[in-house]
């Protein structure tokens, strides 16, 4: 499945933009040549007192407000940022948003001292979600995921990578990916689909590792490719999941069918996944608390993005986080993502991810902002479309009620997003379906 080609930018017949976002203290364009590396990751290419002009779904101009306002005319809508920050819509480059069930009981067990690995070995963890997900139809999965996506969308995420991996059978993996396709079509968000059939061994294959790897390679991947249900193929390369050799076979099979490799790597132990990802030219390797200095150097010299998932370490009560500071200093392409899932990172807030990226992974505030925009877009193959505010790019824009980037982290625990624009359209919160919003009624109605 290939990403869509960007359409040509077309102006109105009268030459005026449809929308101008103005009165911003800063417009963070995050623009430049390619993803940010090294010292460049600290540069947001900000325009003080800036503005953005939009025609249709595309950005037509970015610059000082005095220049941009001269482009407007009677048909142009003005959106006042009220002295806030204007920046690209965030890209969450690692999520598992489509699943069944709830694992709050496991959270309580972990609070009482059980480890994630112990729960997984006892038949819980991923397998518990697989059991619940296999019982659901496409429509059920779409309905359950919709509210999560709306919450993340109004927290500033306009593009998501979305993984399967809770089916672990041919039929159920296809069901998950079809649900992702339908959610993408429904919008206003944009979902980038990833096949993760190699997330864990399903219970029925616990004693037949080779048989399940054969199933993934010989049945699942060909069907995913034939139905064009995914762009990427991911593997959980980790102790207790899939070995380096198994991961290599699965990812190379995916490559042979046109699927771009990604890996869950070096999360719970030194797994060898980072080295394998660089070897195969993976678009990203994700997690990385146990990446070593030699592998950091390899990433710094490669085009494989390092996607850090600090909310997972936080939610699992781990002391070890991915070494963001070392990775940036080595010249790696560093991104941040939520890893939203029901077990190890049940967060819907990219704001919290930004905070942890700074407070636990050692990134500067500006590096973290590039990590959820331009570098995250690269990690999901959308760098030509989203992640920066530049003429010709898709008009995915958010407005924040702060005047400096540092205030995003300094005033922590707050959703600072006050407006979200996707493909040039301001999305009204009232578009959020009724079932995801509180309902009011008269007390007397209960007895009528």
UniProtKB/TrEMBL annotation:
GO terms for molecular function: imidazolonepropionase activity; iron ion binding; zinc ion binding. Zn(2+) binds at residues 94, 96, 264, 339. Fe(3+) binds at residues 94, 96, 264, 339. It comes from the Bacteria. Keywords: Cytoplasm, Histidine metabolism, Hydrolase, Iron, Metal-binding, Zinc. It catalyses: 4-imidazolone-5-propanoate + H2O = N-formimidoyl-L-glutamate. 4-imidazolone-5-propanoate binds at residues 103, 166, 199, 267, 344. Its cofactor is Zn(2+); Fe(3+). Pfam families: Amidohydro_1. GO terms for cellular component: cytoplasm. Pathway: Amino-acid degradation; L-histidine degradation into L-glutamate; N-formimidoyl-L-glutamate from L-histidine: step 3/3. Binds 1 zinc or iron ion per subunit. Residues 85-427 form the Amidohydrolase-related domain. N-formimidoyl-L-glutamate binds at residues 166, 341, 343. It is found in: Cytoplasm. It is an enzyme of class 3 (hydrolase). The keyword Iron applies. GO terms for biological process: L-histidine catabolic process to glutamate and formamide; L-histidine catabolic process to glutamate and formate. Its EC number is 3.5.2.7. Catalyzes the hydrolytic cleavage of the carbon-nitrogen bond in imidazolone-5-propanoate to yield N-formimidoyl-L-glutamate. It is the third step in the universal histidine degradation pathway. Belongs to the metallo-dependent hydrolases superfamily. HutI family. HAMAP family: HutI. This is Imidazolonepropionase. It comes from Candidatus Coatesbacteria bacterium RBG_13_66_14. The lineage of its organism: Bacteria, Candidatus Coatesiibacteriota.
């Amino acid at each position: 499945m290939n990403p869509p080609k960007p359409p040509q930018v077309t102006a109105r017949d009268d030459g005026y933009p449809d929308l101008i976002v103005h009165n911003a203290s800063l417009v963070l364009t995050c623009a430049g040549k390619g993803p940010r590396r090294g010292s460049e990751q600290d540069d947001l290419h900000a325009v003080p007192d800036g503005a953005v002009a939009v025609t249709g779904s595309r950005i037509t101009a970015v610059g000082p407000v005095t220049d941009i306002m001269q482009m407007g005319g009677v048909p142009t809508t003005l959106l006042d940022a009220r002295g806030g920050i204007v920046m690209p819509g965030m890209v969450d480059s690692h999520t598992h948003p489509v699943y069944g069930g709830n694992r709050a009981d496991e959270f309580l067990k972990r609070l009482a001292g059980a480890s994630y690995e112990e729960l997984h070995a006892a038949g819980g963890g991923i397998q518990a979600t697989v059991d619940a997900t296999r019982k659901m139809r496409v429509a059920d999965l779409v309905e359950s995921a919709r509210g999560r996506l709306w919450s993340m969308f109004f927290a500033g995420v306009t593009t998501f990578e979305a993984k399967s991996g809770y089916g672990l059978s041919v039929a159920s993996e296809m069901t998950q990916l079809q649900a992702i396709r339908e959610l993408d079509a429904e919008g206003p968000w944009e979902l980038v689909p990833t096949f993760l059939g190699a997330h864990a061994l399903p219970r029925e294959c616990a004693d037949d590792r080779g048989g399940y790897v054969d199933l993934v390679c010989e049945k699942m991947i060909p069907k995913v490719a034939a139905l064009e249900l995914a762009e990427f193929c991911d593997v959980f390369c980790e102790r207790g999941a899939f070995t380096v050799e198994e991961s290599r076979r699965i990812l190379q099979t995916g490559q042979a069918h046109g699927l771009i490799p990604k890996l869950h790597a070096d999360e719970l132990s030194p797994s060898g996944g980072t080295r394998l990802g660089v070897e195969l030219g993976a678009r990203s390797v994700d997690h990385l608390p146990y990446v070593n200095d030699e592998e950091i150097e390899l990433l710094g010299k490669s085009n494989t993005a390092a996607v850090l998932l600090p909310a997972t370490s936080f939610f699992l009560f781990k002391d070890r986080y991915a070494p963001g500071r070392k990775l940036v200093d080595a010249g790696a392409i560093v991104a941040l993502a939520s890893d939203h899932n029901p077990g190890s990172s049940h967060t819907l807030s990219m704001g919290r991810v930004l905070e942890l990226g700074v407070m636990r992974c050692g990134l500067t505030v500006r590096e973290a902002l590039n990590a959820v925009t331009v570098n995250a877009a690269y990690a999901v193959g959308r760098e030509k479309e989203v992640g920066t505010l530049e003429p010709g790019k898709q008009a995915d824009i958010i407005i924040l009620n702060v005047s400096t980037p540092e205030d995003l982290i300094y005033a922590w625990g707050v959703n600072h997003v006050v407006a979200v624009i996707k493909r040039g359209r301001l999305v009204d919160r009232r578009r959020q379906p009724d079932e995801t919003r509180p309902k009011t009624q008269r007390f007397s109605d209960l007895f009528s």
